[in-house]
Amino acid sequence: MKKFEEKTIATEKIFNGKVIKLQVDSVTLPDGNTSKRELIKHPGAVAIIALTDENNIVFVEQYRKALEKSILEIPAGKLEEGEAPEVTAKRELEEETGYTTEHMEMVTSFYTSPGFADELVYVYFTDQLQRLDDAVAGDEDEFVEVYELPLEEAERLMAEQRIHDAKTAYALLYLKNRRV
């Protein structure tokens, strides 16, 4: 893999936000030429594939400004500094859905857009949900509605592009293969 490595010559910090950092790296290419790479640095995230006792998938609908529309997604959220992914997963499940669990298994992790971002998403699965007695306060700027849908309905919504993100598409594929 080292044969394709690009050596960083210089880094110019462009933006340091609440969620992402943007930088432009000057690099030496494997053939000795130089180039620029625009990079997004992200702390990472989690996503939770959660099944109810009725075998329905738990989704949240929220408006995504970058898309200028609402979509249905599996519960997910950003890692906080120093927080273990499994802790983030349980926290996000509670904040976004009103459910909790004592048992989650790590399914996989993947980079969302490796061409320009280092965001790594950890995907967890649980089918051992318990409804919380009291709602857990989520982020003050996050507005979500919870849905519980069977796999077949979720697949229909994906065909209609109401479900239209990679982590949720992965979750549906995982669940479909799990049933086979």
TrEMBL record:
It comes from the Bacteria. Pfam families: NUDIX. One of its GO terms (biological process) is ribose phosphate metabolic process. Coiled coil: none annotated. Transmembrane segments: none annotated. GO terms for molecular function: pyrophosphatase activity. CDD domains: NUDIX_ADPRase_Nudt5_UGPPase_Nudt14. Residues 40-171 form the Nudix hydrolase domain. Its cofactor is Mg(2+). GO terms for cellular component: cytosol. Keywords: Hydrolase. SUPFAM superfamilies: Nudix. Belongs to the Nudix hydrolase family. This is ADP-ribose pyrophosphatase. It comes from Thalassobacillus cyri. The lineage of its organism: Bacteria, Bacillati, Bacillota, Bacilli, Bacillales.
